[in-house]
Amino acid sequence: MSGNWRLRALFIALVAAPLVLAVAMLAPAFAQVSAQASTAPAAVPPEVMKWGFMAAAIVAGLSAIGAAYAVAVVGGAAMGAVAERPETAGRALVFVGLAEGIAIYGLIIAIMILGFLR
What is the DSSP letter of 24? Predict the structure, then answer.
């Protein structure tokens, strides 16, 4: 019975939560696109600016949390493998670096969102 709540929490973290966040972040953007009638460039409204900053913060934060979890799992397993066979240290470092790439992708997306708000 103890594994059942973990499976539910994993499902919520990996499937349900990102879908809710995506809908919450995209709704104001679609509302703004339909409201724009002129083709002249205008300043970004404060409401869109607020949601843009929030989206960038959420993307950067969630990717950092995901990378931290991945590095913890991969790093622990890699150090266990290195303890048994020291010649695998180079490969272990590569896998930890790949896990850290998740945070870099999130940072890139956050920078792209902020660049759109100019």
Answer: H
Q: Is 40 helix (H, G, I), strand (E, B) or coil?
A: coil
Range of the domain at 86: 44-116
Q: Which CATH number is 62's domain given? A: 1.20.20.10
Is residue 4, in this structure, part of any structural domain at all? Answer: no
Residue by residue, DSSP assigns 87-102 as: GGHHHHHHHHHHHHHH
* pTM for the predicted model, two decimal places: 0.59
- 80 token code pair: 């266990």
Distance CA 69, CA 63 (A): 10
Contact 103, 63 (CB under 8 A): yes
First-to-final CA distance of the chain: 51
Give DSSP secondary structure letters for 55-99.
Answer: HHHHHHHHHHHHHHHHHHHHHHHHHHHHHH-GGGHHHHHHHHHHH
The per-residue pLDDT for range 57-66, each reduced to its tens digit, is 999 999 999 9
